[in-house]
Amino acid sequence: MIPQIADFPAARFRRLRRTAALRDLVQENRLSVKDLIWPLFVTDVVGADAEIASMPGVSRLTVEGVVRAAETAAGLGIPAVCLFPYTDAALKTPDCQEAWNPDNLTNRALRAIKAAVPELAVMTDVALDPYNANGHDGLVRDGVILNDETIEALVRMALAQAEAGADILGPSDMMDGRIGAMRQALESAGHKDVSILSYAAKYASSFYGPFRDAVGAAGALKGDKKTYQMNPANRDEALRLVARDLGEGADMVMVKPGMPYLDICAAVKSQFGAPTFAYQVSGEYAMITGAVNNGWMKEEVILESLLAFRRAGCDGVLTYFAPHVAGLLAED
Ligand code: PBG
């Protein structure tokens, strides 16, 4: 509802835009470093710890490198990092068993970070794609992505991550029923305080292209993910998925990608009032970075792109810009 306002000239909106001090006073939303989750790519493949061609400025890191990045995050006041593994191709199998190996790359990196920077929250990704010979988030039989069998694998994976010290589990797989299964397994195993940030409204998006290069899944992926990720045309379905995941025990929910889906972010926050996150995904990072690096847009566009999520109602954002933005906000 828009309250009645005075007519011109009694109402002059420019009065409150006249100086920076006045603009600051009436600013409705703010972006803080405390709203950011920094996604990190970890690898132990020799030579793979290099910059990702489609994500200028983002590199895959060794376990040691990831620990240093975690220390940097904590130093900058970033509250959380999220780990994504670039797995050795030799460890990718159709049954994805490396996913729940207690000593897999993610779990080793997790333990190392928790030992070095215990106060930093660490989030993990729960999906089979980094371990799957065919690049899918679920187990595949005769070209079909299996729902219920995949959930069993995801539960094992989630438990191994909880065991290794994850603070936040991020199921990004889009199987039906996984949140309830994970929540129940966590309770039974004594991991009552491990939180779940569900990728509840995750769309089948071309904006993930650079990420698939980053984790080495691009070449492996057979077909597309449209039988489990959402149709970009749908809005009501996103709300039903969020309701479902909160009902099954998700503590927080995510909308992904971010900027093209701000309408979904706003609807989710206003309808449920739950902690709501957006993922400013690899393709969004690539577009903005490409334009800034070419001088086509000013660097401030990064802050504008992130503030938009706060205005839409998001509590926080996963963004590859996190450390850079921390620097920009400190100057602000
Ligand atoms: C896969 C996963 C993806 C992303 C996060 N987890 C890609 C996909 O679904 O294919 C994308 C993140 C990004 O693009 O930055 N479980």
Question: Could you characterize what this model shows?
Answer:
The chain has helices at 20-25, 63-76, 105-116, 147-163, 178-188, 209-214, 236-248, 262-272, 282-293, 301-311, 322-331; strands at 36-43, 60-61, 80-86, 121-126, 140-141, 144-145, 168-171, 195-202, 252-256, 276-280, 316-319. The protein is α/β, with parallel strands linked by helices and 332 residues long. It has a single domain (31-331), classed as Alpha-Beta Barrel (TIM Barrel). The chain has an eight-stranded parallel β-barrel, surrounded by eight helices. Strands 5-6 form a two-stranded antiparallel sheet. The model has no long low-confidence stretch (mean pLDDT 96). The structure holds ligand PBG. Ligand PBG binds at residues 125, 127, 129, 137, 172, 208, 211-212, 225, 281-282.
Short characterization:
The protein is α/β, with parallel strands linked by helices.
Q: What's the CATH topology label?
A: TIM Barrel
Give the amount of beta strand, in percent. 15-25%
Number of strands: 11
Number of helices: 11
What order do the helices and strands come in, and which of them pair?
Blueprint: H1 20-25, E1 36-43, E2 60-61, H2 63-76, E3 80-86, H3 105-116, E4 121-126, E5 140-141, E6 144-145, H4 147-163, E7 168-171, H5 178-188, E8 195-202, H6 209-214, H7 236-248, E9 252-256, H8 262-272, E10 276-280, H9 282-293, H10 301-311, E11 316-319, H11 322-331
Parallel strand pairs: 1-2, 1-3, 1-11, 3-4, 4-7, 7-8, 8-9, 9-10, 10-11
Antiparallel strand pairs: 5-6
Helix pairs in contact: 2-3, 4-5, 7-8
The structure holds ligand PBG.
